[in-house]
Amino acid sequence: MEVRFPEEPRFPAWKIPFLQYLVAVVFVILLAGYWRLQVTHHEEYLQLSERNRTRDLPIIAPRGRILDRDGRVLVDNLPAFSVLLSRDDPAKLIPEKLEGIARGLGIDPQALEQQVDQSKNLPRFQPIVIKKSATMQDVAFVESHRTEYPELDLIQVQERFYPKHDFAAALLGYVGDVSPETIARTGKRYRPGDVVGKTGIEREYNSILSGQDGMRRVVVNSRGEEMGTLSTIDPKPGHDLRLTIDLNLQLAAEQAMGGREGAVVALDPRDGQVLAMVSQPTFDPNEFAHHIDLKEWRQLNSDPEKPLMNKAIQAQLAPGSVFKIVTAVAGLETGTIHPNYTVNCPGYATFYGHTYHDWSWVHHRGHGVVDLHRAIVQSCDVYFYTVGKLVGIDKLAYFAKHLGLGSKTGVDLPGEEPGLMPTPEWVEKRFRHKWYAGETISVAIGQGAVAVTPLQLAYMIGGVASGGVFYRPHLAFRDELLKWDLDPPANDPRDFPLAPGTVEAVDRGMWGVVNEGGTGARARVAGLDIAGKTGTAQVVSVALQHSAHNANYKNNAWFVGYAPSTHPEIVVSVLVMHGGHSTVAAPIAADVIKAYFAERHPEQAPPAPTSRQPEIAGRTSRQPIVGAEKASVFP
Amino acid sequence: MARKLESDLILFGAILVLVIFGLVMVFSASAVMASERYGSSYYFLLRQGIWAALGILAMVAVMNIDYRQWRNPRFIFPALALLWILLVAVYLTPRWHETHRWFHMGPLNFQPSELAKILIVIFFAYFLDRRRNSVNDIRHTLLPLGLVTGLTVVLILKEPDLGTSLAICLICAAMLFAAGLHLRYFAGATAAAVPLLYVVIFHVAYRHNRLLGFLHPESDPLGKGFQMLQSLIAVGSGGILGAGLMEGHQKLFFLPEPQTDFIYAVISEEWGFIGAALVLVVFAVILWRGLRAAICCSDHFGKLLAVGITVLLVGQALVNMSVVIGLLPTKGIPLPFISYGGSSLLMNLIAAGVLLNISQHATGVVF
User: Fold this and answer.
1) ipTM strictly over 0.90?
2) Of A155, A403, A203, nearest to A308 (Cα)?
């Protein structure tokens, strides 16, 4: 074998082999090192590795608060504890153990087992929340059973708190655990046990209010004790949301309702801001935040007065005589009648072979000869029967639609109902028969199939009184939504210009309703320029028929008032279900309008009526807020 | 007799084995973390796969370039200048992982300090070859070498990247030794380094003891020794046979950077002592074949280049493996061919290509 000598003798030939041996020694040292660790000390390290456990403890991001227009807190959070169960070693979660845990925490063992079963697909180091709003006893139980149940952990959370309990509950909504359907629909956005808004504002603006939970990956020892934190993902708290709601008006409206079943909506017709929205009876959303039990839920759900329903946007009822404003506008705008057009009202009238009574017939006398103004002031049915017949159902429906009835207003709340404005087409489609001419007569005074929501009536009257300018009712400020990359609808008004003469005639009529001894005289407040229209409706909508099954079939009372009578700043729609007569609704609207002027125009407002306001049971906590300074926060 | 030049197939095979095994281990080490962080468990594998393909192509290309081409000063000095520009430029890039080490090009990141290693090797081989008769001349040999090395090392230290800086010093020392630098220089350097070494070693020993003391859970497991301990646990719990591919626990959140600097810990955990030793053996094969190429190479430049590249590849591996079991405190040195890291893989494969070309000239000597 040929051996080649280096060409350059100066290159020290021994050095490369030397390097080789040197490195070989390092190899041997390394091998020895690995042998020592992996073979000699294997057991020790195996033990250590088994002790190496991580847990991902969620850091719950607090939901944003909900504030009124002046920053007063309507919905807040309170610190609370949740109990977590780790499942890093599923084999150890034997039924006996789960039962012990369930007993200690006072939860149903079967439900717990089911929950553990359902979370099989979640990553193992992700503990599950097995009890929210842990009591002091629960905390003590977890702390004192560390050795027995190392799987348990406590985390501090910010739990939803509605400081005013049932106050504005239908509007604000409530929160609850995210449903499996929502998890499936939204992909990975939610995990079981996450809290989301279920109804109302909480639901509509969930994306703003809900933050993004953080996470702390901790090392725990075999006793479940935290040894330290590996990594932390900070939670992103939800944003506070300011509503257009005025706390003082809302309080005034709720107090004025005095627990009667129904709804109140106060709108600013100049921009569509909802200033107050009441639905009665109400409920305490706190109960939902803390795991409502099935029995309570059923009770709330089957209550004939439907406390969970937001009647301001979901009750679809006949508007009664408030609809006469639509009939009047249709008559005037189509040129069918003049304001000085007169009708003789003997207390009844006959159309198409049917006799239709005026509401005054109970006294067996009519209104006599009335013009439009008198007809609105006295709410003369015969007058509007006649106008309705002259205008015809098609034009009535056309105007009703353009004045905002029969379709959703687009308010930023989930579950708004559209109401119904019947047309011959609708009847044919729905009932497969021709429109009965007589139905037009009923529709003209807001009976028959016409159905509206309290919000729609406020929207309609506000728009008419503003000369045909309709702003979409809304509860969140558009510019604030834009800040959060939401895309709220533009706040441009929908114009349906009405002739000045029309607006003036209708406005004066509605002023008379309140101020000329008309049907809404009880809404009169000395010193305030209030106008309005009453309504008394007999029909109970299909949707609500069940709710009326044991109650009397007393009429629903309506009143929609606004002030000032020209260029109104506030319009208030009041519904008192089974109120009997509209006279019960009028003073409620007056109270809200008074509260508005007391706040915005104190120089015009009459002295605050302190004696008249009824004290409602269980509401003493609200008292300090009335008239509280704007910047103050709820106690 | 004119013979067809053949590359060293054993060396070639050893490198290929490491690259393929590396892809498997990168996936195993990163899958869970990648799917958690990036939504895809293939995140790291995919990127490493692209670099591996590029790297192997580059290696085959370089393998067919006569290594003597690299001796050209018109290549070496502009390349060094470019390297320094890149090392300065990288300092102006946004911080990433708390350091300025990377250029980002779409999904791929490039680390200029990886380029530094191979360029310094080529420069040393070139310069020591030029001065082969006066290697011990301080003014004309050692000073220029020291300046070039010093500038490069300082720039890399500023990133900061202590591991790569030390690796470069190690490679330079090995090449100087091979080139015949007088032993008294090494003795002097060692003497100067003794206090430093003492502290380092003492600290390592102290920490080692303290880590083993962690058998008591009351002690602080998340202090400074945490990462080291987790690495030791990974290696130790692997035992002889290992936990099995993909079965390691330590890579899940406990090991720092399981797919890069501590991939050997994952290998040790999942393949046990057998697997760790086999990887070590493959590196030993690279050492053997690489130095064989150096010995058999007929010219000074080729010998030095082969030594430098072999030390570059094997030395880094040894340092990395020592770090994993706490024998050395340094971090930041990847395991060549295996660790995740595109520019490191590419540069190591290019270096291997040069070495393979040198091996073609190892004519008939049986080592």
Assistant:
1) no
2) A203
Helix (H, G, I), strand (E, B) or coil at A350: strand
**φ, ψ (nearest 5 deg) of residue A230:** -85, -45
Contact residues for B204 (Cβ-Cβ < 8 A; gap 6+): B326, B327, B328, B329
A573 close to A454: Cβ distance less than 8 angstroms = yes
Which of B208, B222, B233 to mutate: most A Cβ within 10 Å?
B233
Residue B150, chain A, CB below 8 Å: the answer is no
The answer to whether residue A573 is catalytic is: no
Cα separation of A537 and A556, whole Å? 5
DSSP output for A248-310: HHHHHHHHHHTT-SEEEEEEETTTTEEEEEEEES---THHHHT---HHHHHHHHH-TT-TTS-
Q: Inter-axis angle of helices A109-118 and A95-105, to 10 degrees?
A: 120
Q: What are φ and ψ of residue B170, in 5° steps?
A: -65, -45
Q: Tens digits of per-residue pLDDT, A482-499?
A: 888 787 888 888 999 999
Q: Which residues pair with B160 in a beta bridge?
A: none
C-beta of residue B303 within 8 angstroms of C-beta of residue A12: no
Each residue of A387-417: b (16+ CB within 10 Å) or e?
bbbbbbbebbbbbbebbbbbeebebbbbebb
Cα separation, A28 vs A213, in Å, equals 51
Q: Domain-by-domain residue ranges, chain B?
A: 9-359
Instruction: Please judge whether A10 and B132 are an interchain contact, meaning their C-beta atoms are less than 8 angstroms apart.
Output: yes
Residue of A18, A22, A25, A34 to mutate, interface with B, max B Cβ within 10 Å = A34
Structure confidence at residue B358 as a pLDDT band (50, 70, 90): very high
Q: Residue A532, SS3?
A: strand
Q: How many CB atoms lie within 10 A of CB B50?
A: 13
What is the C-alpha to C-alpha distance for residues A303 and A246, in angstroms, rounded to an integer?
Answer: 29
**Domains in chain A and their CATH numbers?**
54-87+116-242 (3.90.1310.10), 247-289+310-625 (3.40.710.10)
How many angstroms separate the Cα of B139 from the Cα of each of A285, A461, B142? 86, 100, 6
- Residues A78-100: pLDDT tens digits? 888 889 888 877 777 788 888 88
What pLDDT, on a 0 to 100 scale, did the predictor assign at position B230?
A: 80
Residues A331, A387 contacting (CB under 8 angstroms): yes
Mode of pairing for the β-strands spanning A368-370 and A469-470? unpaired
A233 and chain B in contact, CB less than 8 A: no
Q: Of A321, A360, A442, A565, which residue is the catalytic one?
A: A321
B272 contact residues in A (CB cutoff 8 A): 38
Whether chain B has a CB inside 8 Å of the CB on A54: the answer is yes
Shortest CA gap B291–chain A (Å): 7
Residue A227 contacts B where some CB pair is shorter than 8 Å: yes
Cβ within 8 Å of B, A 197-226: 217, 219, 221-222
* CB nearest to A10's CB, from B133, B220, B311: B133
Only one residue has tokens 């850091």, namely A59
Does A564 sit behind a cis peptide bond, omega within 30 degrees of 0 on the bond before it? yes
A153: helix, strand or coil:
strand
Chain center to CA of A165: 15
With 0-12 / 13-18 / 19 or more C-beta atoms within 10 angstroms meaning exposed / middle / buried, residue B329 is middle
φ, ψ of residue A157 in degrees (nearest 5): -130, 165
Contacts of B45 (CB under 8 A, 6+ apart): B23, B26, B27, B30, B31, B34
Place of tokens 């091996």: B359
Find how far residue B55's CA is from the centre of its chain: 15
Largest CA distance in chain B: 74
Pairwise CB contact (< 8 Å): A30 & B179: no
Q: What is the rounded (10 degree) CA torsion for A217, A218, A219, A223? A: -130
Q: Is the pLDDT of residue A156 over 70?
A: yes
Task: Please state the separation of Cα A253 from the chain's center in Å.
Answer: 17
